[in-house]
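@channel sequence for tomorrow's demo:
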Amino acid sequence: MTKLKYIIGFAFSLFLIGSVGEVNAQAKKPNLELDSLAKPYHPEADAQKDIDSVVRVAQNENKNIIIQAGGNWCIWCLRFNKFIQQNKKIKDLLDHNFVYYHLNFSPENKNEAVFNKYAPGKGKEYGYPFFIVLDKNSKVLTTRESGNLEEGKGYDESKVLSFFNEWLPQK
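structure tokens (generated this afternoon):
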């Protein structure tokens, strides 16, 4: 009987080791889509200093500002960045009317002071990415979640265009 307990215990131990190994392998499995997308967020950046620079550009060019809040860890943030870069209508609209900035939120840099200044609590309310629209003088015009702009594993062109068109600068 003792030998049987030993064999069962040994077999159970091997099972546990195999299960833990499988879980670790799954945890380390790369996300090929995430890895393939451009990483526009910069955790090392001084976000307030960057936004101050963006405001000066917006004032000189009479443009509004779109801040896309998120991080390089966020697949939907990176998908949105790819979408606006590859969609000619949206890219042209942004280039001609807005100054665009990616505001980082990550464990390395949560940019709490910047989020509290422009969009307090919105990350928890909306999730990521979300948008902060500023006028050329850095006044917050609106904040917006991104979920209702999605379509499948991407974004809907007409919904995104409609959102950006709502916030065109006054010329």
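heads up for whoever presents: The two ends are 89 Å apart (CA to CA).
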